[in-house]
Amino acid sequence: MKTDPTREQGLRLARTGDIGAEVNRLALPLILQKQTPGLVVGVLLPDGQTRVYSYGVTGEPDGGKVTGSTLFAVASVSKGFLAEITTLIVQKNVFQWNETLETLLPLNTPLSRDARKITLLQLVTHTSGLPRQMMTTEMLGGVVQYLFTGDNFYHALDRHSLVDYLADFSAPQDLSPRYSNIGYGLLDYILELRTGKKVETLLAENITGPLKLTHTGYQAPMLPGYAQRALGHAGDQPKFIRRGSQVPDWHFSSLMIGAAGLYTNADDLLTYANAHLYPTGDRALDNALRDSLRVRYARSSEAAANGWIVDEVGNQNITYQVGFIGGFSSYIGLDTRHKTAVVVLQNSFNWTNNIGHKVLQRMGEAIDSKNDYDKNSDDVTHKSLNHEALHFH
Question: Signal peptide position in this chain (predicted)?
Answer without folding.
Answer: none
